[in-house]
Please model this.
Amino acid sequence: MSELLSIDITVNTENLDKDLGKARDNIHDFNERVKKDEAVELSINKARLQKELEITRQLIKRAQKDGDFEAEIQFRSNANIIQQQLTQANRELTNFLRTGDKTTSVLGKLFSSLEDSIE
Model:
C-alpha cells in the first residue's frame, strides 16, 4: 500500500544571486557603520583625555603658584597616568585607522562561507 512520492525542485539561481548580492551589500554597509562608530568612539576618548590632561596641567601650574607642593605632586602623578592613557588611546586609534578597512565582521565571514558553499 505504500506509494512512492517524487518531487522535482527547481531553483531560480538568478533571484538567488540577486538576493545574495543585496545581502552582501547590506553586510558591507553594516560593517562600514560599525567601523565609523568605533572610530568616532576612539576619537572622543582621545579628545576627552587630552582635555583632562590640559586641565591637570593647569592645576599643576596653580599648585606651583600657590606653593602647594603636595597638590603639585598629586597632580603630576595624575598627569602621568592620563598621559599613559592618552598614549594608549593614540595607539588604539592609529591601529584602528590603519587596519579598520581590513577587518570583517563575523556576519561578513559567515556570508562569505555561504557564498562559497553555493558556488
